[in-house]
TrEMBL record:
It comes from Pichia membranifaciens NRRL Y-2026. One of its GO terms (molecular function) is sn-glycerol 1-phosphatase activity. One of its GO terms (biological process) is alditol phosphate metabolic process. InterPro entries: HAD-like_hydrolase_phosphatase, HAD-like_sf, HAD_hydro_PyrdxlP_Pase-like, HAD_sf. This is Phosphatase. Keywords: Hydrolase. Signal peptide: none annotated.
Length: 235
């Protein structure tokens, strides 16, 4: 098999989707926006890990008595895709470029939203690396099960390296690695990619500026697709 000329890795919540599923759940069914933002500030100043803060946010949703099926139904009614994402995945399929979701969210939620929001023909071409859920079908309590032991709960750098090694067993054949993200959990991915896209007006832009990480801002996947086409010189 000929190695692909590139791989597009992307965050899911707030990047592929216009609304962050976990923020929506926390703000409307859990602890509420003010408390979530207080935890977010602690993540940004380093006094609380993303892993621990995220568990508190999602735990507040379950603690308020909202089952996972109810949460998923709420998200199906309120979450929409970035308007350029469908065009991007179709272009990737046409050009034999893998598109891989690398998310701090939960697999059952991502897969359910993909089935609703994307044409069925495109589902097989999207791979997902994410966290899991314990007791996902229970009407009672449920909780996130992290992918690894990192401070993020899912070290996206590790997942990117794993996927890249599968496509490029010979490092000499390695193509361009793109990553698209918007938040704190995407910082680790910056170590793995050749070009980082950071969403305008979100935490990742501020972190990149603070830490001297090279990035390109994007407003939608239309911007990302245009830039990838320019980088690869493929229309």
């Amino acid at each position: 098999m000929t190695p692909p000329r590139a791989i597009v890795f992307t965050d899911w919540d707030g990047t592929v989707t216009l609304q962050d599923s976990n923020d929506l759940l926390t703000d409307n069914l859990g602890m509420g926006h003010p408390q979530r933002m207080a935890l977010n500030d602690r993540i940004l100043d380093g006094s609380l890990s993303f892993r621990d803060a995220f568990a508190l946010m999602l735990g507040s949703v379950a603690a308020n008595g909202h089952s996972l099926p109810h949460c998923i139904e709420y998200l199906l009614q309120n979450v929409k895709l970035d308007p350029g994402f469908s065009d991007t995945i179709e272009w990737c399929v046409a050009n034999d470029i893998p598109l891989i979701v690398v998310s701090s969210g939960m697999d059952v939620i991502i897969e359910t939203l993909l089935k609703k929001l994307l044409r069925p023909q495109l589902h097989p071409f999207i791979q997902v690396y994410s966290n899991h859920v314990e007791s996902p079908n229970s009407a009672g309590s449920w909780n996130i099960v992290y992918r690894d032991d990192s401070s993020f709960g899912h070290d996206k750098n590790q997942s990117i390296q794993h996927a890249a090694a599968l496509y490029y067993p010979d490092p000499a054949t390695r193509g361009t690695l793109f990553y698209c993200g918007d938040g704190v959990s995407d910082v680790s991915a910056a170590r793995s990619c050749d070009l980082l896209f950071a969403k305008q007006g979100h935490d990742l832009v501020d972190i990149c500026k603070r830490d001297g990480i090279n990035y390109l801002e994007f407003a939608s996947f239309h911007d990302i697709l245009t830039q990838i086409q320019q980088e690869l010189k493929v229309s």
